[in-house]
From TrEMBL:
<feature type="domain" description="Tyrosine specific protein phosphatases">
    <location>
        <begin position="268"/>
        <end position="342"/>
    </location>
</feature>
<dbReference type="Pfam" id="PF00102">
    <property type="entry name" value="Y_phosphatase"/>
</dbReference>
<protein>
    <submittedName>
        <fullName>Tyrosine-protein phosphatase 99A</fullName>
    </submittedName>
</protein>
<dbReference type="InterPro" id="IPR000387">
    <property type="entry name" value="Tyr_Pase_dom"/>
</dbReference>
<feature type="domain" description="Tyrosine-protein phosphatase">
    <location>
        <begin position="384"/>
        <end position="638"/>
    </location>
</feature>
<dbReference type="GO" id="GO:0004725">
    <property type="term" value="F:protein tyrosine phosphatase activity"/>
</dbReference>
<dbReference type="InterPro" id="IPR003595">
    <property type="entry name" value="Tyr_Pase_cat"/>
</dbReference>
<dbReference type="InterPro" id="IPR000242">
    <property type="entry name" value="PTP_cat"/>
</dbReference>
<dbReference type="InterPro" id="IPR016130">
    <property type="entry name" value="Tyr_Pase_AS"/>
</dbReference>
<dbReference type="GO" id="GO:0048666">
    <property type="term" value="P:neuron development"/>
</dbReference>
<feature type="domain" description="Tyrosine-protein phosphatase">
    <location>
        <begin position="79"/>
        <end position="351"/>
    </location>
</feature>
<dbReference type="InterPro" id="IPR029021">
    <property type="entry name" value="Prot-tyrosine_phosphatase-like"/>
</dbReference>
<dbReference type="InterPro" id="IPR050348">
    <property type="entry name" value="Protein-Tyr_Phosphatase"/>
</dbReference>
Length: 700
């Protein structure tokens, strides 16, 4: 009897306990993540034949240059008419966006006038287990078709703090592998996007834990890698009998160089970015998430460019007008301005005329052979003469060179045809009441890691020595590469000598040491402020008559490696490169340094892109086709040397000489001192992961 009562009480207690557990885990409202949904199997291709003149069909690539010229005629009137027709059609279609306007969703829109089209709105799901129903939640995002692929993209706004959780749930649920961000967090003093990812460590957004694995910062964009983990999983729910995945990788491609206003000055960097970010998305992955601030202007530009490049590769045709009309039915205002519409055509014209120039190292020899042997009429993309003409196609106007051609500055230039453009000239602080005193004949050039990684300038004239050292001081240029010869006549000594300082208003330049190690001469200096204890350590690495004195050609990289080892240790400001006129030799040094880094990181080299960017920033640096061909031959020799020698030993590290002399000085520099080396994660565009420890020591 007693035993029966005890058993009954225990059974009752177990039943109560089971009820409590059930209520806690299964009755309460509970979030879960939908399994990735497959894209629709069909896609509309009606847009391919759409044009302002009616169903005339897409434009073959060989006719596209004439088409763009026609649109540019009479002050771009053709572009204006086409863009107005697209906008008018968007208004006529009148797709609803009631979900965006609901009171509980209005605060989830970054801009009141940028809402999501109803029929392509992307939603994540909330499942209330007790009610056995799903309640969709709103995200300002839309599916957008790509070329021959439905729902290839998700176009969305820059996430708000209130939508971080929804954004990461969307990424998880849609099996997203690549997120493309085309805005900075702040632009022109205004917040354009909130930081929705952890800078380091891990953060939890709703049911998704996001861990920052690493990042690699390049000149125009940054790649970040994250590990996503689902924290809350239903023990009952499965789809097709399989449990939901618990973790996934995500790469964020963040383009950081879109101007604060307007459009990019050159389409080459953004085209390279689009190719690499799109190629990184695996075939089995979900849509590419693309966002800027509002998720329409730059976002639409990315989508159209990627889709049209795919169309060019697949069919040799292009139809910007028809495709943009089509995707505007899926998200309003894609390609938000007429300037962006014009930029689309100019960028695609670059694609058509230059072809694929980012070449894998294993194909570089064959590519160079084709450049030199293929007739232009047979295969224009494989023709060196055509590439060189394209590099020199952009001729600067007088307005672009106004400072260098100003009468007060003419005497500061060694050559009247090697001048900096206004947009990319290096400026120094002007002297009060002295006109044109901010001018120095020097240009910013991009590198692989920084947008303004180099300064190229001429050998200082006697009258410009003070301006030269002021530029060094104000721009924190601690490494100077001197390629010009030094004599007592035309190219005189411009640095301080022992017991003879260079006096300037803000600082004093003082000689420290000189070391000769053939063919290099290393000179160390300090620039000291008279008002505080700050000292800037500067080293001049001289190798006169480079690259002419380099034989075989691969030896040109000896100097580059010497400079890099020194510059990397104290890398804060730009590397300042000096030749006689601030021309070919200096630009060649910068370009080969950049290409060497690209080969190391990506196993690719894009000689054409960097050569053209340099020509746009400092016209006339490539004076002949031989100058351009030298870049290809040097890179080819580097690839062949690495393949033949494996891990060949580097040249002697002459930068070690007298380094102890500079260490106490550098410590006084405060923030300008390079921090201790730490291991960083390098993320190649093809998705291969490797860890680089300090100076290129790979651990896989």
């Amino acid at each position: 009897m007693v035993a029966g009562v005890v058993c009954a009480v225990l059974a009752l207690l177990l039943a109560v306990l089971a009820l409590l557990v059930w209520r806690k885990y299964f009755q309460a409202p509970y979030n879960y993540l939908d399994a990735p949904q497959k894209a629709m199997s069909t896609i509309s291709t009606d847009w391919e034949s759409d044009s302002p003149e009616g169903p005339t069909g897409p434009i073959p690539v060989h006719l596209f240059p004439k088409h763009v010229d026609r649109l540019h005629a009479d002050g771009d009137i053709g572009f204006s008419k086409e863009y107005e027709a697209i906008q008018a059609q968007t208004l006529l279609d009148g797709y609803t966006s009631d979900l965006s306007q609901q009171p509980e969703n209005k605060h989830k829109n970054r801009y009141l006038n940028i809402v999501a089209c109803e029929w392509t709105t992307t939603r994540w799901c909330r499942f209330i287990r007790a009610a056995r129903r799903r309640r969709p939640d709103y995200v300002n995002a839309n599916y957008v078709d790509g070329y021959q692929r439905p729902r290839a993209y998700i176009a969305t706004q820059g996430p708000l703090p209130d939508t971080f959780d929804a954004f990461w749930r969307l990424v998880w649920e849609q099996n997203v592998y690549i997120v493309v961000m085309i805005t900075n967090l702040m632009e022109r003093g205004r917040k354009k996007c909130d930081q929705y990812w952890p800078q380091e460590g891990k953060e939890t957004y709703g049911d998704i834990q996001v861990t920052a694995v690493g990042q690699n910062v390049m000149a125009t964009y940054t790649i970040r890698k994250f590990c996503l983990r689902q924290l809350k999983v239903s023990l009952l729910w499965t789809r097709s009998g399989a449990a939901a995945p618990r973790s996934a990788w995500l790469y964020q491609y963040h383009y950081t160089s879109w101007p604060d206003h307007g459009i990019p000055h050159s389409p080459l960097p953004i085209l390279s970015f689009i190719r690499k970010s799109a190629a990184a998305n695996p075939e089995a992955a979900g849509p590419i998430v693309v966002h800027c601030s509002a998720g329409v202007g730059r976002t639409g530009t990315y989508i159209v460019l990627d889709s049209m490049m795919r169309m060019i590769r697949a069919k040799g045709e292009v139809n910007v007008f028809g495709f943009l009309k089509h995707i505007r039915t899926q998200r309003n205002f894609l390609v938000q301005t007429e300037d962006q519409y014009v930029f689309l055509h100019d960028a695609l014209l670059e694609v058509v005329e230059s072809g694929e120039t980012d070449i894998h190292s294993s194909f570089l020899r064959r590519y160079l052979h084709n450049l030199q042997t293929t007739e232009q009429d047979i295969y224009p993309w494989y023709n060196l003469d055509r590439q060189f003409k394209l590099i020199n196609y952009d001729q600067p106007s007088n307005k672009c060179m106004s400072s260098g051609r100003h009468p007060l500055n003419v005497s500061k230039n060694r050559r009247p045809d090697l001048l900096p453009t206004e947009l990319h000239r290096v400026r120094i602080s002007p002297k009060s009441g002295v006109e044109c005193s901010d001018y120095v004949n020097a240009s910013w050039l991009p590198g692989f890691s920084k947008l303004d990684e180099f300064v190229v300038t001429q050998h200082p004239l006697t009258a410009t020595v003070a301006d030269f050292w002021q530029m060094v001081w104000e721009h924190n240029a601690q490494t100077i590469v001197l390629l010009s010869p030094v004599d007592d006549q035309e190219y005189c000594i411009f640095w301080p000598m022992e017991h003879v300082d260079v006096e300037c208003d803000q600082f004093r330049a003082r000689f420290v040491a000189e070391t000769r190690s053939d063919p290099y001469v290393l000179r160390d200096f300090t620039l000291q402020s008279p008002t505080d204890e700050y000292e800037l350590a500067v080293r001049i690495i001289q190798c006169s008559n480079w690259p002419e004195n380099c034989s075989p050609i691969v030896r040109v990289f000896d100097l580059i490696q010497v400079v890099q080892r020194w510059h990397l240790e104290y890398q804060n400001g730009p590397c300042l490169v000096v030749d006689r006129f601030g021309g070919t030799e200096a630009a060649t040094f910068c370009c080969l340094t950049t290409l060497m880094k690209q080969l190391e990181y990506e196993s690719h080299a894009d000689v054409y892109m960097y050569a053209r960017l340099y020509q746009q920033r400092r016209p006339e640096v490539w004076r002949s086709q031989d100058d351009f061909l030298f870049l290809y031959r040097a890179v080819e020799a580097l690839v062949a040397s690495d393949a033949a020698a494996g891990a060949s030993p580097p040249p002697p590290d002459v930068t070690d000489v007298q380094r102890q002399t500079l260490r106490p000085i550098l410590k006084k520099g405060g923030a300008r001192q390079r921090p201790a080396s730490t291991a960083t994660v390098r993320i190649p565009p093809d998705g291969m992961e490797s860890v680089v420890v300090d100076m290129g020591e790979y651990v896989t």
